[in-house]
Amino acid sequence: MSLVAVVLAAGQGTRMKSEIPKVLHLAAGRTLLGWALDSVAGISPDRTIVVVGFGADQVAATLPEKAEAVLQEPQLGTGHATSMALERLGEVSDADVIVIVNGDMPLVTTDLLSKVLRALENASAVMVSTELAAPYGYGRVIRTGAGSLERVVEERDASAVQKEITEVNAGVYAFKGGLLSDALAELAPDNAQSEFYLPDVLPILLARGQQVALVEAEPHEARGVNSHDQLAQAESVLRSRINQYWQRQGVSMQDPSRVYIDAEVVLSPSVRLYPGVHLEGSTRVQDGAVIGPDVFAADSSIGPGARVWYSVLRNAEVGAGAEVGPYASLRPGSVLGARTKVGTFVEIKNTSLGDDAKVPHLSYMGDASIGARSNIGAGSITCNFDGYQKHHTEIGEDAFIGSDTMLVAPVVIGDKAVTGAGSVITRDVGEGALAVERSVQKEVPGYAARREERHQADKTEE
């Protein structure tokens, strides 16, 4: 026996009003198609066929290595798409099992697909249905007087009475391969869209005396995504699932409804997440880290025991016990060592901080390396761009950069060196040296009184 999964992903999704193929829209950090494929992978199919059409090259480029793309051109309905998949498979028999899922259904679970496969053990075909209070757009399930399946009527072909039916076709099926292949050959496009509907194979099988089983799903599992409001609804369910999973792994969330975690994010036990936290991409958060409130972290690593709040991290690394924020921005290439501090209104870009180094507030450090235990005074800046290219600043260990220091790159500040507050440093500073660059301070006695006299005279002339 061979188990084959067929994922239908050829549609454009006109209601999305987007140039992006519908199945490539993101929900919780993964495409709609990616979620469907992830659930399909859970039943361990021998082959996975993805039928592509609109944006075929874009969709095919996202597929995992073992998935096979099959082009449906033109797109003549779900029955036609399934026929394209079977053509790729070649000859199939009733010993082969074909599971079919729509690629715009991110909420389908592996558990539901496993239930479908169990039902197929005592039937020739299985269709998943569910009850929807607002069934618009879905095919209605028509049952016989005895309660068994008679057929499915699509929205455009349904009568006013049929449209009142709330049991709908969820778009998930399983078939014995040979029976499916024979029934597909009899399909005709006798409907409002002149398409070949996959559900129309079910009455063909019933007419041949074959048994078709119905498996009921929870309403949220059966929902497809055809518009941006439906996408948001699906994403809400996915995020709730993700949050519940991590809470069971020992992650604390003060308000899970305000925590947003992408599918590929990895968290360790004892992490604490406050409201307003967004963790995206390949972000990793290690034991005991406290994140939030109001943190956005994408493709970043946050070490054990770190504290990050009211901040933005992009492709950044935060070391063990480090503190970031409030109101800090770590741009790509930021690497913070253990117990470092990047404080209030500080921006770091392509810069490394050695262990215990500190940039406490109101500073910009770009294209720099800062040695262990060095301190950067408030208002200090690396002047790294000369209008044509970026230059590097190197600050040694145990250095003290006075407040409002401008470090004009390229420049090297030696170990234990000190810069005076308000200095513009354009030359290297030796180890242990003090560098001061200021004009001589002048004092003009009586200036305030003379200034006031001029002001009053000007007012009199007016």
Describe the structure.
With 462 residues, the chain is α/β, with parallel strands linked by helices. It folds into 2 domains: 3-222, Alpha-Beta Complex (Spore Coat Polysaccharide Biosynthesis Protein SpsA, Chain A); 228-435, Hexapeptide repeat proteins (UDP N-Acetylglucosamine Acyltransferase, domain 1, 3 Solenoid), CATH 2.160.10.10. Helix content is 20%, strand content 31%. The protein contains 9 helices and 39 strands. Strands 13, 14, 16, 17, 19, 20, 22, 23, 25, 26, 28, 30, 33 and 36 form a 14-stranded parallel beta sheet that branches. It has a 7-stranded mixed beta sheet with strand order 5-4-1-6-10-7-11, with helices on both faces. Helix 5 (177-184) crosses helix 6. It is elongated, with a radius of gyration of 32 Å.
The CATH topology annotation of the largest domain reads as Spore Coat Polysaccharide Biosynthesis Protein SpsA, Chain A
Tell me the distance between the termini.
Answer: 101 Å
Q: Please identify the structural class as seen in this structure.
A: alpha/beta
> CATH H-level name of the largest domain... which superfamily?
Spore Coat Polysaccharide Biosynthesis Protein SpsA, Chain A
